[in-house]
Amino acid sequence: MIKTLILIPSRMAATRLPGKPLLKINNLSIISHVFKRAEEANIGEVVVATEDQEILADVLKNGGRAILTNNNHNTGTDRIFEAYKKLDIKNVDYILNLQGDEPDINKDDIINLNNFMINNDAQLGTLAARMQDDRMLNNKNVVKVITENKLEKNNFPAALNFTRDNLTINNQNIYHHIGIYSYKVSVLEKFVNLEQTDNEKINKLEQLRALDNKLKINVALSKSSSIGVDTQEDYLAIKKIMEYKLKDE
Predict the structure, then answer these.
(1) Would the pTM count as exceeding 0.85?
(2) Residue range 4-248, CATH number
(3) Is residue 235 within 8 Å of 22, Cβ to Cβ?
(4) DSSP, res 108
(5) What sign has the CA pseudo-torsion 231, 209, 145, 120?
(6) Strands 94-98 and 174-184
(7) Average pLDDT, the chain
């Protein structure tokens, strides 16, 4: 049976919004919301990888599992690889890297990506959603992915590029990138041993390291366009959405 491990990198020292993992929505921290969504997907063990004792304590307090990693990682992917090695969980086939700042991610999207990876024997995969608003094309906080074919419910095309740049609606096959990656273990190991590329550093997008080194990234269509919390405005927007959803339940 194929075995998947979900690892969630998280740290307090975010450049644009320091301390964001512990910001509260409905009386629960952002990082613990993400953990619970991952756990609800029920596709494998879930562990938060962090350099911060405060995050570790919060996750444990809320019934999650976390592990301390060192504080000299350039990217979240480097952090999850250290966590994977420290955890020493046997016979893992895929490692799913779930970003710790998307508290409203749909559990079905996590399940869907995992299924696409397994069914296609893919090396590296991610998610993207249709653009909700043309203004997203001109928002540098929104990461866009351009795919080789139009994204459909049942296909898994390759990514051609990821960018924060302003784009026009005339560009073909542009989607809102969702911060989740699934790696075959061997591909993750190869990825973290590659040098960061200039393209990656300039754009602050680690997935460009993979494309620059000819690693194929397949993209599945996400059911929903979750908001990553990068700024105070993002936090207030997602807080409002999730509080409204709770009232509706």
Answers:
(1) yes
(2) 3.90.550.10
(3) no
(4) H
(5) negative
(6) antiparallel
(7) 93
